Amino acid sequence: MGSNLTSHVLEINGPRRSELSAVNTAAPTASHSTPAPYVWVAALVSMILFAIDTWWPQLGWIARPLIWLGTLFHELGHAIAAIALGGELVQLAIYADGSGVAMHRGAYSGLDRALIAAAGPLGAPLAGLAFFMALGHRHAARLLLAVLSTFLALALLLWVRNLFALGFIAAMALGLAWVAWRGDDRVVLAVTAFVAVEMSLSAFTRLDYLLSAGANTGAGALPSDTAQIAQALGLTHWIWGVLLALVSLGIVGLGLWRAVRLGRGSAVVQPS
User: Fold this and answer.
1) Model pLDDT, residue 257
2) How far apart are CA 185 and CA 188, in angstroms?
3) 86 exposed, middle or buried (CB, 10 Å; 0-12, 13-18, 19+)?
4) Which end of the chain is less enclosed by CB atoms within 10 A, N or C?
5) Alpha-carbon span 201 to 67, nearest angstrom
6) How far apart are CA 155 and CA 180, in angstroms?
7) Cα gap 83→142, rounded to integer Å
8) Exposed e or buried b for every residue in 63-81, given b needs 16+ CB within 10 A?
9) What's the distance, CA 149 to chain centroid?
10) Burial label, 24 (beta-carbon count in 10 A; 0-12, 13-18, 19+)
11) pLDDT tens digits, residue range 165-214?
């Protein structure tokens, strides 16, 4: 099969919605042994931001960076899947309107193209789940932030070309690197919890995109991810949209289960 250039896009239509004491092996205190307070505070802040974006759209700029963050993980999902399947990532772009494009090329089978397209919508929920799982181990949370900042720095050097994406991703990489290497445990847990909650919520705020056939992006009008899956495997885009929505909600459900366990104190912070 010949080499081909593929673009995966994301469109945003309308509002989107301790320093810890050392673990006491005899009897750890709830306030210092579990990250649950950080999860609940992150959920509260996320709901406030969602309410602002929904009911006071003139103040929507406050929540706009969270949309860019969701778009970043969406496009990273496409990028990682393309590389894993032997493709070459050509460009990664994010635009101020919340849309994004991941351009790649390779000798893909139909199933490969479908998997790469599906990895975008699943990117943010999977990221949320990974951050939720890391919350139970403070060193794992710090390591996850460090790995993500390093990957973003690599993306800046190799694939990001548009000015807006360069600024946003550079800020993200620097911020995550500071938290990972210089932040105390409270800051690490707070940032990890906030990213986990926000990426999980993004699965709900973008369900309409999964049922659309096309997307208007900063790079122009392009077929949606589900339309590309339909082109590769058959059926209609909305059937694949429903299936991806169910998978996304299942992933979010696992993250919520983890959050509930943290809230009940059954998952304590381990010094792993």
Assistant:
1) 87
2) 5
3) exposed
4) N
5) 11
6) 18
7) 25
8) bbebbbbbbbbbbbbbbbb
9) 13
10) exposed
11) 999 999 999 999 999 999 988 889 889 988 988 888 877 777 778 888 88
